[in-house]
Input
Amino acid sequence: MPRISSAPVYTPKQVAILDGAVRVFLRSGYGGTSMDRVAAEAGVSKQTIYSHFQDKDGLFTAMMEHMTIRRFDGLFDAAHLPGEPADLMRQFAATFLHKLVDRDYIALLRLMIAESERFPELAKLYGRTVIQQGRTLVSTYFRAHPELGFADPEAIAHIFVGSMVSYVIAQEIFYGNELMPLSRDRLIDSLLALLLPPAQP
Output
């Protein structure tokens, strides 16, 4: 079964630096972050940061990998348990959205979008670790269940996963929660009703 790439293994000191970098980058943005600020936040010397991550770009890249891969590592292993498709799809969707929607990760998404031109590899990292892995897992599951009747499992998987990603961007980043509220449960219910065949009486 396809799965997300394993998260890099960091030493406790590197984790302390990355945790400090998360707080500073999310608070100050890329341009407003200095290695001095990260060093103070992490409680290490600036030279220590350079010795582990080379420069600010290297630290930013490692921070993005740390937050993104760590957050989704395991989701794509746990989502293919045997069971009824409707139950598994609901569980996957609920877990996927839960991992995407919290204050720090929304701030990270904002920062990633803002820096995607400067760091295209980071945008690709998100695409690989979240969108592509999710779509691959779901399309593999759909192909293994021909009774669902999906002529193009990959396209249906794209609709399923893409709907959740676009929901997060629209509701959390573009203030849809204020302008056009839509609960996660309503989204999931409607997706399943749209994609799954009606239950037989």
Notes: Residues 120-143 form the longest helix (24 residues). The two ends are 33 Å apart (CA to CA). Residues 1-5 have pLDDT under 50 and may be disordered.
